[in-house]
Design a protein that fits this description.
- It contains three helices and six strands, in the order H-H-E-E-H-E-E-E-E.
- The two termini are 26 Å apart.
- The longest helix is centred in the middle third of the chain and has 17 residues, at 51-67.
- It is an alpha+beta fold.
- Strands 1-2-4-5-6-3 form a six-stranded antiparallel beta sheet, with helices on one face.
- The protein has one domain (7-131): Hotdog Thioesterase (Thiol Ester Dehydrase, Chain A, Roll), CATH 3.10.129.
- A hairpin with a 3-residue loop joins strand 4 and strand 5 (107-115).
Length: 135
């Protein structure tokens, strides 16, 4: 996976994702990796990472994966998300890895895994993105 983060990708980290502390660690045609340093306000009543934060990091990662799947960036919006939570996430950092499954003329399918500090997959999701440029 490329280690260079395109300025256009970094510029897309705004709003809620930025507020949550979303950080890109890799971004390229072969996928996207990101992380969030866990803060006390990210935790649920049970002291585990809130499922809403997990879905946020997954959606942001999937969107960037779909948008940067080709040499030229394509604007994409979420069409659907199917998220499966396997284990509660705890620790100091959560990681997301986005993998492009297929990019077509109007849609892309992206899988995202969320891992804890130990590298254990705690959640996974399949995301469909719609390309708004309609090539």
């Amino acid at each position: 996976m490329e280690n260079r983060i395109p300025q256009a990708a970094q510029a897309r980290i705004v709003g809620f994702a930025a507020y949550c502390g979303y950080e890109l660690t890799r971004c390229g045609q072969d996928g996207v990796e990101a992380r969030i340093q866990v803060q006390p306000h990210h935790l649920n009543y049970y002291g585990k990472v809130h499922g809403g934060l997990i879905s946020t990091v997954m959606d942001a990662t999937a969107g960037l994966t779909a948008s940067f799947a080709e040499a030229e960036q394509r604007p994409a919006v979420t069409r659907s998300a199917d998220i499966h939570y396997f284990l509660p996430v705890s620790g100091t950092t959560i990681y997301a890895q986005g993998h492009l499954i297929r990019a077509g003329k109007t849609m892309a399918l992206v899988y995202v895994d969320v891992l804890d500090d130990a590298g254990t997959v705690c959640a996974t999701g399949a995301f469909e993105y719609f390309y708004v440029d309609h090539r």
